[in-house]
Write a structure and sequence with these properties.
Blueprint lengths: L3 E2 L5 E2 L7 H25 L6 H8 L5 E6 L4 E6 H11 L2 E3 H6 L5 H7 L14 E4 L6 E3 H9 L16 E2 L13
Parallel strand pairs: 3-8
Antiparallel strand pairs: 1-2, 3-4, 5-6, 6-7
Length: 180
């Protein structure tokens, strides 16, 4: 084996390179760029995602929520779609003007400072709004309904649940709902 000398006095050994390594590197690089372009075009909406990805994204909140049954003191799994419908049906819808009247003399101060944290728009007197039972936060009806339609079952502000902790089959307690 001959040793070549470089101009800086370090020995340079000739080495045979396997022809397979550059072709594997090139193939990996091509696959990487193919994946990169596919993701970019899908993100920009120029390419439709494969059916299996579309299926999972459409059902991203297909699960269950565990609720306490007040009669049997046990957890009951309830499909999240049922819980979201329950939330929309049972949270009261009020006009914002009626809501601020209960604050008496402070209603002008409350009216100026109330902002829907979902859309970041101020509440107007004639807006339909929902007041949450557990935390008393208020949101535009459309904003909270959109939030719930996305599979969210907690308050957008403090993350308290939008459904009761226990299912009250009689429906007597405040903020509890009857499950049929």
């Amino acid at each position: 084996m001959s040793v070549l000398r470089s101009h800086r006095a370090f020995p340079v050994l000739p080495m045979k390179m396997n022809k397979c390594i550059p072709s594997m590197f090139l193939l990996t690089l091509v696959e990487y760029f193919k994946l990169l372009f596919k993701k970019a075009f899908t993100h920009l909406g120029l390419l439709k995602p494969p059916p299996e990805e579309d299926y999972y994204s459409a059902n991203h909140f297909s699960g269950y929520v565990l609720l306490m049954d007040s009669r049997s003191r046990s957890l009951v799994p309830v499909p999240i779609q049922v819980v979201t419908e329950m939330i929309k049906q049972n949270l009261p819808v009020r006009e914002y003007g009626n809501f601020i009247e209960r604050f008496g003399d402070d209603h002008e101060q409350v009216e100026k400072n109330t902002i829907c944290t979902v859309c970041l728009d101020s509440m107007e007197k004639n807006d339909e709004m929902r007041e949450l039972c557990k935390c008393s936060h208020v949101f535009h009806k459309e904003c909270l309904d959109t939030w719930v339609n996305e599979g969210q079952v907690t308050c957008p502000l403090c993350r308290s649940t939008l459904y009761p902790d226990r299912i009250d089959w009689t429906g007597r307690a405040t903020c509890s709902w009857i499950i049929n």
